[in-house]
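Sample A.
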Amino acid sequence: MRTKDLLAALATGLWRWDDASGRVRLDAEAARLLGLPDRAVELSEATVRSRFHPVDFAEINGVMQLAVAERGLAEARLRVVDAGGRVLRTVRARCRPLTRDGAFTLLGTVQEVPDPQPDTAAARTPVTGDRRRSREAFLLDAGRALAEARSTAEVLRVAAGLSMPGFIPDGLAVFGVVGGRLTVIGHHGQPGGEERPFTDMTTDTDYPAAEVVRTGRAIYLPTPEAYRARYPTAWPLAARFARTSWAFLPLVNAGRTIGAWMAGFNHPVAFTADERAVLTTVARMLAQALARAGAQESQHELAVGLQRTMMPTVRPDLPGMTVAARYVPTGGGLEVGGDWYDMIPLPSGRTALVIGDVQGHDVRAAGLMGQLRIALRAYAAEGHHPDGVLSRASRFLSGINDTEGAAGSDPRFATCLYIEVDPATGLLDIARAGHPEPAIRTADGTMLVRATAGGLPLGITPDTDYPTTRLVLEPGETMLVCTDGLIETGGHDLETGWARLRGVIEAHPDGVADGGLERLADALVQAVHGPSSHHTTGPLVDRREDDIAMLLLSRDAAACRVGAGGPEAVRPVRRTVLTIAQAEPERIAEARGQIRDVLHDWADPEQVDAAVLLVSEVVTNVLTHTDGDALLVVELSGPAGSRRMRVDVADGSDELPHRRSPGELASSGRGLVLMELLAGAWGVEPRGDGKSTWFEIYEDAAGGSPAEPNAGEPPYAGAEPGAPGPVASGESGESVAELT
C-alpha cells in the first residue's frame, strides 16, 4: 500500500505551506478536513487562514515561528470553522519547517481529533501548547528582523509581516510627527480603492493616535463600543474598516515620542497583560528601527547629494574622443571621501582632466577635497600650465594645513594627476603629484603603464616643482587614470594591482562605440569589488578597501592628424616614451620594465633580454657621459611574427661615439660591440640639438631580412642588419662606447 493511501485510510491529510510565495497545497484528505471539496488544491494563505478559528490561527503562527527558530517539530490543535464562523471539527496539525534564504516551507499532516471533554486535561491545556515559549521565539525573531532592516520601507514591511502569538493584526499603520502634525508613514491591511482618512492631522485631533503622541501613553480599545464612546468624532471614519479591536502605542526613541503605531484586529482581543506586554515590546523595537532607518536614510541622502556636487558629469562633446568616469565609495561608513575627479574646460580651448585623493576617509577629507577641487578649477581657468596649476594647489593646501595645524588638526596631503588634453592632436601634457601613473591601452589591446615625471603630493611643502611629461594618445588608444583604490583594494600592492587590471583591460573587446568605454569602466570596477574579487586577493595579509575614482579617455580610431601633405601615416600600434633625467638614474629600471611590457608577446625571449640589455646600456651611457636627460622612444610595428621594434634614445650632446678595443680587464668600451652582436640594425643620427642613438630588433630575424619600415618614415642610417651607424672617428666623446 502506498503512503498516500495509508494516510487516507487513517483520515490524515498532507499539506505544504510555502512562506515565500504565500501559497498552501493540500491533498484531497486535507482539503476535506478543512471543509473544502475533497480534491487536491493549491490555495492562498488568506483562504486557508479563513478556515481556522482566528485565535487558533494566531497561536499556530507562534508555534511555527518557534519551530523555525529551534529547527524542531511544530504541533498544534486547531478548530476548523465554516464561512459563518461555526466550528466544524478540531484537527491536529504536525509540521516540520524547512528554511532556505530566510524563508521557510512547512511540510506536515492534518488529522481529525475528538473534541476534549470539559473536565479532561486536554481541555485545560491551551489549544496551541506553550504560549510563553511561542512569544519568546516571536520577540526574538521580530527583533532580529527589525534590526536588519536598513530603510523605512523595510521596517514597515517587517512590521506588516509580524504574526503575534495569540493575536494577529489585520491592519497596521505607523504615524510620524512633523511640525506638530501627524502623518501616515506607512500602512498595511487597509482595503484598496477607498478613501484613506487620518493621513494628515494635527496632534490635538480627537483621534487615538494623536492622543498617544500628546500623552505618550498607550490606548487599547477592545470593542467598537469602547472606540465609539471614547472618540465619537473619529468613530465614523474608523467604522468603515470594520475592525473589532484596536491598540494604539507610542513610538518612543531616546525618551522622545516620534510617532504612534496602530494595530487593528477583525476578531475580538481582550488585551490581557500578556498581550499588552508583547505589543509594548514590539512598539519599542519598531521605534528604534524607524529612528535608525531614518538616520541612515538622512546620512545616505546627504552623502549622495555631496557626491553629486563633488563629482561633476564628464563632457561627452570632446571632438574625436570619448570619456567615461566612475566614483565608487567603499572605504568606510561615509559614502563620500577624499577621492575625486574633474573635467575642466580651459581658456585655450583644450580640456583638463584631474583626478586626486585627499588623505583620509572622513568628513574633513571630504571638505578638503571640495576646497582643493575648487582651487584647481580656479587656477586652471586662469590659464596656467599643468605644472603651475599643481604648484599653486600645493601652496594652497599647505596654507590650509598651517591654519588648521594651529587649531590642533593634523596636516593632510593629497595626490593629484593633472592632464591637459588637446582633442585635435591627442597631445597630453601631464603633471603628477605623488599619484599613480596613467596606463595606456594601445590599439592592439596591450596595456602599458606609462612612466611620467612627478613631484611630492600636494600640501607637503609650499614650494614644489612639478615636471611636465608630454605624451600623444594615438588613434585607437585608451588612457586610464585612477586613484589607488582601483589598484590596491583587496590586499594588492602596486605591482599585483596593475597585473589584475591588465587582465581586464587586455581582455576587453576593441572599440569604444555603442558604450564600449562605459562597459570597460564597469568591468574594471567589477574586477575590484565584484564577487570574483574575493577569490583573487593580493599578497598582502589585510584586504584593504578604499574609495575608487577613475577616468577613461579614448581617442577614436578614425581620428588622424592632418599635415601639409594630407593625413599623416598611421602610427605604430605600440609606442611608449620615457624621459630619464640626470638626477633620476633609478628610472633606468623603469625603462627596462617598459621594454618588457612592450615585448610581452614577442616570439623569442632571448631577443627580449637583448633589447633590455641594449636599452640599459644606451640610457646609462647617456646619463654617464652627457649633461642632459635621456629621451627613450620605443615603437613596435608590423604583423605578429614579423614585427620590428625600434628604440631611439635621444640626448642633447653633439659628440658622436667611436669604436674602441677594450682590453680583457677593461670595465668599459664594449657598447658598440654589444650593438653589433645583438641588434638587427643600429646607428647614430645627428640632430640639430644633439643626437639619437637607435637600434632595431626583428621578430623574424632568422629569415635574414628586417621588416620594411612604415610608409612615410625616413630611411634609417645603417638599415642593413649588422651595419654600424655613423661613428665620428677621432672624436673624444663616447656616448655609447662604454659599458657601465
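Sample B, a different protein:
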Amino acid sequence: MISLIATLLIGAGVNKAASDEKKVIRISTDSTDLLLQVGDNGRLYQTYLGPKLLHEADTREFDWSRHAATDGAVSRRGWEAYATSGNEDFFEPALGMTHADGNMTTYLYYVDSSSEPVDGGIHTRISLRDNKYPLDVTLNYMAYPKENVIKTWSEISHHEKKPVSLWQYASGMLYFDKGEYWLTEFSGDWAKEAGMSSQQLQFGKKVIDTKLGSRAAMHASPFFEVGLDGPVKEHSGEVLMGTIGWTGNFRFTFEIDNVGNLRVIPGINPYASAYKLDADETFTTPEFIFTLSYDGTSQGSRDLQAWARRYGLKDGDAPRLTLLNNWENTGFKFDENILSGLMKEARQLGVDMFLLDDGWFGNKYPRRNDRAGLGDWEATRDKLPGGIPALVDSARNAGVKFGIWIEPEMVNPKSELYEKHPDWVIEQPDRDTYYYRNQLVLDMSNPKVQDHVFGVVDDILTKNPDVAYFKWDCNSPITNIYSPYQKGNQGNLYIDHVRGIYNVLKRIKEKYPDVPMMLCSGGGARCDYEALKYFTEFWCSDNTDPVERAYIQWGFSQFFPSKAMAAHVTGWNKKTTVKFRTDMASMCRLGFDIGLEKLSPDELAYCRDAVANWKRLSPAIMDGTQYRLVSPYDTNHMAVEYVDGTGNTAVVFAYDLATRFSEKLQRVKLQGLDSAKRYLVKEINLMPGTETRFPQDGKILTGDYLMKIGLDLLSSRQKTSMVVELTAQ
C-alpha cells in the first residue's frame, strides 16, 4: 500500500512523501500546540490542538490514524488538515473544485514544509499537491507565541490547460474531540450589532454566513466562540475564539460528525461565487485568526487585543484623536458659518478634531438628503463657497484638526457620476432596479472604478494636505447583482469586488501612511482584521443609546481592543444623563456628536473634565490590559477594568443599567493588579457640585485586597455610572 502510493506521488513530482512518512509539523505559541502529521498514505492530518506540550518527544506520540476508521468505515479517514471533495471523507470539505476536464475530485499529498520567523511570529508553509492534476495548495500558519494567536490561510494554484472552477475554498480547518460543544455567535441588525447568543451544537451542521456583499456584517458578525466541554464562560473553561479577515461574504461551518467530533471551517462564503481561476494564477483565501484560551473568554480577549495592537490594527501603537462630529447636531443642514462655530465648540470641549459628516458635496445634484449627490465629491458651492480649503483654515484657526466623511464605493442614481459611467455600477440589465437607501454599489472589481475611488481620497489630500482624518462609510449591501465588467465571470464578482477595495486601500496607505481613517458601514457592519490593516478604528453602531451600547461594546470587546472601537456621546436616550452617556463612550475611542448649546454649564464642565481624564488615562484605556468584570448579559450591571502596562494605574468603569427592587449587590473584585502594591482609590468624572457616594473613595488599599475583597461599585439606582481611578503609591 505504501509503496504503491509513493510510486504515484513520485510520478506526480511529489517525491518526498515516502521519506516524510509520519513527519510531524508543530505550530506553537507559548500556550498552544497545533500538530499536523504526514500519514502513511502521504496526506496531511491534524493530530492535536490544545495546551502546549512541554516535551518535544510527546509531540511524536500521536498517530493520524487514531481518528481513522472509528465509525466502521471501509476506508480509513482521519482529520485531514485540508479535506477535499470527492474522496473518502463524507463530511464538509475545505476545498471543492471542478477541474478543466469536468472531474470534481481532488486528493492532496504532502510535498514539503518550512518555517521562518516573520514580524513577531513564526510562519509555517506546507506544500500539498494533487497526484493526478497539476494542482498545488499551500497551507499557511502564522503563530504568535507571546500573544497565543494563530493565523491560517491557503493558497490555491494550478497549471491545467483551461480554467478551473473553485466552489469551496476555506481558509483552514480545525478539529476537536470533546464531550460537548457550545457556540456563541454574534448577530443582530442595524443599531443592534454584535448581540451575543449561545446554543449547544448537535450532530450535523450549524452555519453562520452572510450574502450582503459590501455591508457584509449587518446581520452576522465575522467572529465566534466555541466552548469546548461546556458553555462559553468569561473566566474559566476552554474556548476557541475565531475571526476572519474578510470585508465581504463569509461563512463559518460547524459540523459534528457521526462519532461526535467537531470540525470548524472558516472562509469566504461560496454563495453565487463559483470562482473561475485561470492557469498560473493564485487564489489566496482570507486569514482566519484564532486563539485557544484555557481560562475563558476574558483571557482569550486579552490575547487577541494584545495581538491586534501589535500586528492587526493600523497604527495599533499610536494614540487616537478625540473629536466632535456634526451629524447628530446638524444633519444635512449646515453652512460654513455653522461649521466654523462647531469647530470653536470642539476647541472649547478640549477634543483634538472636528469631523464633518455627510452632506458637504454635489453641485448639479446637491447632497441635501440621501437621495442625490453620492459619487460627486466636490464641495457644494452654495453651501460651502470656500470648499474644503476654507474648512481646513477654519479648523486651524479654531485650534483643532479637520476630518471629513466620504462614502466612495457608492453612488446615487441622481448623480453626475452615474450619468457618465452607468457601466461602473453593479446593476442588472433588463430588470427593475432595487435601491437600498436610494443608492447603488460601484463595481470595485473594475480597475477603472478602483482608480476613481482612490482618486476621491487622493484629490482631497492633494489639494488639502492638512485633512487629518477620514470617516469611510458603506451604507448599502450589494443589490441587483451583475457586473458589466465581469461579463461571463459573474461568479468572480463578490470576491474580486472585495479584492478591489483592498487594492484601493493599499494604495491609500502607501501614499498617505499617516492619515487615520474610521471604518464605518451604516454602523458596525464592517469590523474585520483585514480591513483594519488600513483603518485605525471602526464605528461600532449608529445606536449611541448608552444602555444599548453596553451590550454592543461588550460584544465587540470580545475580539477588539478599545482603541479599535469608536464611540460618541450624543443625544440618544435623553432619559440618561450626559455623565452616563460620556462614561459609556469613554471606554472606547472617545468622541462627541452633540451641540454644546444643548448642554448646561455643569454638563459642559463635566464633559471637558471627562475629555481631559480620558486623555490622561489613555495609556490604560487605549493600550492597557482589559478585564471584563461584570457582564450586562448575566446581571443588571456592567463593570470593565483597564490596567496600564506598568501596573501602576488602573481605571474601572461601572454601570447600573436596570436594577431590581431589593437586588443584592456584590462587591466587584478587580483583576490584573500587583497584589503587593498599595493603590489610591479615587472616583473621577463627577458632575460639578456633586459629592461621591463611593465608600472607598480616597482610601489606599492593597492590590491583594482589591482583587480578593473588591469595591462597592454597583448601586440600586437606575442608569447611573461610576469611574474609578487607581494609582499605585
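Observation for Sample B: Residues 493-511 form the longest helix (19 residues).
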